[in-house]
Amino acid sequence: WLLNGSKVFISNGLLADLVIVAAKTDPANKHAMGLFLVERGMQGFERGRNLKKLGMKSQDTAELFFNNVRVPKENLLGDAKGGFFYLMNMLAQERLTNACGAVAGAEAALQATIDYVKERQAFGRPGRTSRTPASSSPKCVPRSTWRRSSPTAA
Question: Catalytic residue numbers?
Answer without folding.
Answer: 94
